[in-house]
């Protein structure tokens, strides 16, 4: 497909140039953030920090971890991810398996399917959901964060499609040996499904980790905030600080603001780390999930 | 008989999911009834019936009518940009000879997609501030500091551009997958006929990419009233309500912050009804235009 003409060579160079610039815009803001978090606050407010830390210091991280608010929120987030993704996986496996069967094998399969799919199309909206969760007395408990989204229907359908791709002979052999559906699911299917479970599991991890909104509306006590909600309140207070200190000559306020900027950068960066760590896996499994998710049935 | 004996286990497996979906999806669905009531926490979903009073109230509010237009404008612009930009990038990436470069670029443009809007907002507030990197860069060309987040006429565009920026990596991967499935033989014979690179894109690549583009467009139509709550809530401020307040942020402030549950639910119901019509229309269109059946 390649020609060695001059025009093509120029095109290739320009193409790589454009792609490089755009790709860099996707990563440079985060490098900037990282550099700010490791820099001295005086250099940051002087606007001297680009993509390399100036006057390297860890004080922003000390500031961030001081007082324990950050660590407490981090622990709640971890608890939420473990509990939430565990519940997600169990429920997805349990629902996807019968739904991957035909109407003949499971009476009422289509009714179940419609029952689940409808919830993807219409929802009660923010207020009625809020009232139900509040009415059940789940406010200020971890259950408010994990139960409302306990059955991720879209991911469940992806998993269902994975299950349909497994040759039926495997199950039949086990059924002839007298295994029950539960035994077949646990002993025969689960080992084969590991890559599929990794795919949907990773999506659930990202969803739980990134969600800040349920923490904000369901937790009255800031001590119960998961990390993203805590970061969100930090962001709001920082903005207020910025607005209130504009034009102010108060040195003290200015110093607080300077420290806040590096400290905030450090906390934002820490909040992004878990996603960055699983990112290579996400990327690997994402295309798979995409392809399988489109094979609807 | 043996069949029935085996079947009960399947239904038992479905039971926990059915119950949880019933509690957290179907009861709230029934709960939209409070849009026609004067909600009283002591009475719950069976509060006094007031008919269409809440709807009359919201449609008499200029602030609400404003949010409809803002939502529509921001969402449509995001929808168009969210298709054009990834298609262009998929085409550019597809022209790369080196597979390694292709993979590196894909990895980089895909990162913002997985970070939460809280983190992204933190980064954006920093780089878009008056002393931030972007304004420093613009300063080189003598363009004065632009108030990206505090100027009501610029704010919607900031939302549109940053949303496309965050999400275009996803679309690019989708279109790239469609591009790699095009038969290379088509290009070979085109080259034999003396077709230039541009002609190959114009007459082979784009027409073959069209079904995927139409499909993505049609599927996005159902989202026209979702202008991006997470993004806007984390970046807006009262100064930009005029152009930046959308239906979802309005429902949140009214319904949850001010506890006007019935009014909030009425707006939510209005939005769901319009969305449901759009979703149905788009699914019918997807079937007719692209031959794609969702169910």
From TrEMBL, chain A:
Classification via PROSITE patterns: ABC_TM1
Domain ABC transmembrane type-1: 70-279
The organism's place on the tree of life at top rank: Bacteria
Places the protein is found: Cell membrane
Record field: transmembrane: 12-35, 81-100, 112-136, 142-163, 184-209, 265-282
Coiled-coil parts of chain: none
Key word Transferase present: no
InterPro entries cross-referenced by the UniProt entry: MetI-like (IPR000515), MetI-like_sf (IPR035906)
CDD domains (UniProt xref): TM_PBP2
Annotated Gene3D superfamilies: MetI-like
Keyword annotations of the record: Cell membrane, Membrane, Transmembrane, Transmembrane helix, Transport
Bilayer topology: Multi-pass membrane protein
Similarity comment: Belongs to the binding-protein-dependent transport system permease family.
Name the UniProt record assigns to this protein: Carbohydrate ABC transporter permease
From TrEMBL, chain B:
Domain ABC transmembrane type-1 per the UniProt entry, residue ranges: 68-282
Membrane topology field: Multi-pass membrane protein
Organism: Drancourtella massiliensis
Record has Transmembrane helix as a keyword: yes
Any single Pfam family the record assigns to this protein: BPD_transp_1
Protein name: Sugar ABC transporter permease
The UniProt record lists the keyword Aminoacyl-tRNA synthetase: no
Keywords: Cell membrane, Membrane, Transmembrane, Transmembrane helix, Transport
Record-stated family: Belongs to the binding-protein-dependent transport system permease family.
Localization (cell): Cell membrane
Membrane-traversing stretches: 12-36, 72-93, 114-144, 203-225, 261-286
InterPro entries noted in UniProt: MetI-like (IPR000515), MetI-like_sf (IPR035906), UgpAE/MalFG_permease (IPR050809)
Domain of life from the UniProt record: Bacteria
SUPFAM superfamilies named in the record: MetI-like
CDD domains: TM_PBP2
């Amino acid at each position: 497909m390649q020609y060695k003409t001059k025009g093509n060579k120029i095109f290739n160079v320009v193409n790589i140039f454009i792609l490089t610039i755009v790709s860099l815009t996707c990563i440079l803001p985060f490098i900037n953030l990282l550099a700010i978090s490791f820099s001295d606050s005086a250099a940051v407010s002087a606007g001297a920090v680009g993509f390399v830390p100036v006057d390297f210091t860890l004080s922003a991280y000390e500031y961030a971890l001081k007082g324990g608010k950050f660590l407490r929120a981090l622990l709640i987030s971890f608890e939420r991810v473990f509990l939430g993704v565990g519940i997600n996986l169990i429920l997805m496996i349990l629902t996807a398996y019968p739904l991957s069967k035909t109407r003949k094998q499971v009476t009422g399969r289509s009714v179940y399917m419609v029952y689940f799919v409808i919830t993807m199309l219409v929802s009660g909206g923010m207020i009625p959901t809020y009232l139900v969760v509040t009415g059940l007395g789940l406010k200020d408990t971890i259950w408010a964060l994990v139960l409302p989204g306990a059955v991720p229907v879209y991911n469940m359908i992806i998993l269902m499609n994975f299950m349909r791709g497994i040759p039926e002979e495997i199950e039949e052999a086990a059924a002839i040996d007298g295994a029950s559906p539960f035994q077949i699911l646990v002993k025969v299917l689960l080992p084969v499904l590991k890559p599929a479970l990794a795919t949907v599991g990773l999506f659930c991890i990202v969803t739980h980790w990134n969600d800040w909104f349920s923490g904000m509306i369901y937790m009255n006590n800031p001590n119960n905030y998961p990390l993203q909600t805590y970061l969100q309140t930090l962001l709001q207070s920082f903005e207020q600080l910025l607005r209130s200190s504009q034009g102010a000559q108060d040195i003290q306020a200015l110093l607080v603001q300077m420290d806040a900027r590096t400290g905030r950068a450090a906390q934002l960066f820490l909040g992004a780390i878990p996603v960055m760590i699983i990112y290579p896996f996400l990327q690997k499994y994402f295309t798979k999930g995409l392809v399988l998710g489109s094979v609807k049935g | 008989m043996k069949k029935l004996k085996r079947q009960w286990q399947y239904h038992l497996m479905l039971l926990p999911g059915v119950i949880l979906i019933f509690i957290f999806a179907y009861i709230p669905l029934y709960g939209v009834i409070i849009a026609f009531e004067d909600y009283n926490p002591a009475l719950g979903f069976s509060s006094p019936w007031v008919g269409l009073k809440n709807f009359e109230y919201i449609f008499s509010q200029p602030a609400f009518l404003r949010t409809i237009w803002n939502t529509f404008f921001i969402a449509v612009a995001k929808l168009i940009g969210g298709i054009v930009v990834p298609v262009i990038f998929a085409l550019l990436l597809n022209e790369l000879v080196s597979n390694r470069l292709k993979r590196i670029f894909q990895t980089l443009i895909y990162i913002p997609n997985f970070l939460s809007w809280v983190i992204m907002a933190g980064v954006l507030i920093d780089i878009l501030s008056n002393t931030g990197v972007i304004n420093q860069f613009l300063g080189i060309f003598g363009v004065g500091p632009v108030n990206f987040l505090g100027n009501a006429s610029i704010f919607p565009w900031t939302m549109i551009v940053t949303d496309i920026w965050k999400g275009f990596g996803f679309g690019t991967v989708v279109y790239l997958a469609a591009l790699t499935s095009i038969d290379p033989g088509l290009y070979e014979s085109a080259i034999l006929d003396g077709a230039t690179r541009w002609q190959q894109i114009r007459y082979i690549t784009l027409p073959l990419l069209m079904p995927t583009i139409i499909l993505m467009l049609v599927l996005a139509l159902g989202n026209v009233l979702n202008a991006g709550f997470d993004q806007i809530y984390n970046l807006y401020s009262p100064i930009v309500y005029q152009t930046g307040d959308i239906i979802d942020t309005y429902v949140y402030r009214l319904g949850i912050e001010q506890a006007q549950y019935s009014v909030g639910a009425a707006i939510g119901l209005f939005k769901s009804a319009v969305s449901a019509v759009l979703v149905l229309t788009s699914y019918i269109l997807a079937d007719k235009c692209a031959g794609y059946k969702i169910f």
